[in-house]
Structures are given as structure tokens and as C-alpha cells.
Amino acid sequence: MKKMLIISLVLLGITLFFLGIYNFAFKKNVSTEKQPIVKISEENNQQQKENIPKKQEKIKNISNQAIIGEPFFDKKNNTITYYSAEDGTLWSVGVNGNNKKQISDTKLSGLEDAFWSKNGEKVITKFKKNNKDSFYFYDHKKKEGLLLKDGLDTITWDLAGNKIFYKYYDPASDKRTLNIANPDGSDWKVLTELTIRYVSLNQIPTASLLSFWNAPVSKEETQLQTVGLAGGQTQTILKGRYGADYLWSPDGRQALVSSLAERENKMVTLGTVDLEGKYTELNIPTMVSKCVWSSDGKTVYYALPGGIPDGFIMPDDYQAENFTTQDTFWKLDVATGKKERIIEVGDISGKFDSSRLTLFEEQNILYFVNRIDGKIYSIEL
Length: 381
Prior knowledge:
Blueprint (H helix, E strand, L loop, with lengths): L1 H50 L7 E3 L5 E8 L4 E6 L5 E5 L6 E4 L6 E6 L5 E8 L2 E8 L4 E4 L4 E6 L6 E7 L4 E7 L7 E6 L4 E6 L4 E6 L6 E8 L6 E14 L5 E7 L8 E6 L4 E6 L6 E3 L5 E6 L11 H4 L8 E6 L5 E3 L12 E7 L4 E6 L5 E5 L1
Antiparallel strand pairs: 1-27, 2-3, 3-4, 4-5, 6-7, 7-8, 8-9, 10-11, 11-12, 12-13, 14-15, 15-16, 16-17, 17-18, 18-19, 19-20, 21-22, 22-23, 23-24, 25-26, 26-27
């Protein structure tokens, strides 16, 4: 009996001894295996965070500085040329915002606007000094420029970029005329006399016609008229709208119209008019200054203004820069009337009051100048 007890105790001791060794080895292995797993997980998480691409802005700043006047888009060389609002120096930047460089360090004091010819080799610049407007013609290819005659207050290029149209006031006769001339002002010819003081001009594409209308004011009925490029009788296309502005389609068959149906309405709306004067309402509350046609005339890209303060009159107070808008961006199928966002509201970071819209279809990019900061921006379509 005593012998059996001793044997049992020895066996128990041996069992406890091996059990202790097993537990010690198992816990040690578990400890050494768990630590690397946790460490690898943390490293992987950190690496994954670093590899997550940053959110790309849908609206991209191109010029990185405020511009003044109309920018010139060189679709052959994929560049944009513009004057700096800071000092009037001339700059160029790639259409994607790269390769920015200064073309001219000549500072143009008092520069207020710029109008480029079709190929960008010539430019008409407008200056305001001592409350007086003056216009200069400059040929970048020949590096020659000159001051145009006094009396001009509205000017635009013909579609070929070889001639200019302008309104001229002769103080001696107290007459206002619509004229055509070479860019340097030579070989000028009167197209028609005018009774209105402030006028907007635009040649109708694919037609030998110049369209003109009294500059948009909410209290004034706007009359869209035409005259031949050789002069002659004027024709009225559309009247009965107020504060109207126009933008012709590339084929010249119709124009966008932003206008008021009645005096001093709260908001202008967009419509179209054809050469016979047929008006079609589109019911889009925006202005043609926030629109651009596609090259085939089937689509209109536009900015839809928001944040218009109460008590302001459209389009007068907007044109006087008494407030800015907060735009969203859309496109319109002209044939079907279908409207579609080109950028979601959540992807618009910042405030944009869009003007001077340009469609660069070769790159599938829409450009605009933001009236809030004066810079050029782009939206990939």
C-alpha cells in the first residue's frame, strides 16, 4: 500500500513537471507569434493610409493670378495668353496650368480690357485714365502698336480677325455711328447711324451680318437688329424683351437670349431666337455671359447663379458688380431641353462667379474666369 502511494506521488510529480514545461513553452510561442502580427497590421494600415490618393479638385485653378480682359486660347499650341490684373504684364500658361511664363514685362497702367483677334497675333486693349477711355491696337507678330482715334467706346473683332467693328461718337455733329475698319483704324466705313448711346456688337457666324442691340438695362426694351457688312438698311429681329443680351450659335441660325419678360423682373431667364425672330423660352435663370455653345451648336454649357441678394435688380446690379453669385455648372441639350449637371454640388469647393466661358473641345475642358478672384479655372468634362 505504502509502495503504491510512493509510485503515485512520483508519477504525479513527473506529470506536473512536464505540464509546467508545456505551459511555459506554449505561452512563450503565443507571445512571440502575436507581437509580429500586431506590428505588421499597424504598418500595413499606415502604408494603406499613405497610399490613398488625395481627392482631386474637380475645378482646377489655371492662371494662379488674377487676369484682366479676355484671355486668348491658342488651341494649336495648347496655351492660354492673358494680361495680369496686377500690373498689365503679358503671360502664357499651358491649358492644364503648367509651363507658366511671362511673355512681356512691359507694365500697362490703367489697362481695363483686352480683345484678341482670332489667331491671337493682334489685340485691341482698352485703357481708362482720368475717367476717359482709350483704345490701342498692337500687332504681336510685327511688334508694332498705335493709339486709335478718340470717340470709340465699343469695339469687337470680325470673325476672321481681319477687321474691327466699333461705335463712334462725333462730338462736332453729335452723331453716333456703327463702323467697320482695319484694326489700326484705317479704311473705315460707316455701316449705319445709331440713336442709342450704349450698344453691344457681335457678328453673326456664317452670315455677312453684324448684329447690334442696346446694352442690357432692366427698364429698357431691347431691340436686336442687324446690318450688312457693307452697310445698308437695318433689320429688327427681336423686340419686346427687357435687359436682353445675346450669344450666337456657331452656325448663326439662332442666338441664346437672356432677358426679362417684363420690366424689373427679379431674374433674367434664358431663351433662344432664330433669324426670323421666333423666340423660345428655356426657363433657365441665367445670363448669356455665363454660357458657351458647343462647336456643333447642339449643347450649351452654362453656370447657374445662386445667392442673388434680395432687392437687387437684374441684370443691372450684376453688371455693375454690386454683388457676386455662387454658381453651379450644367449643360443643356438644345433640341430636347434636357438639363444635366456637369459637376456635382459636393465637388464644388469654393465660390465661383463665372464669366468668359470657353469650351476647349479638343481637351474636353470648360474654362471660365471667376469674377470673385479674377483667376482662370477649368472643369474637365
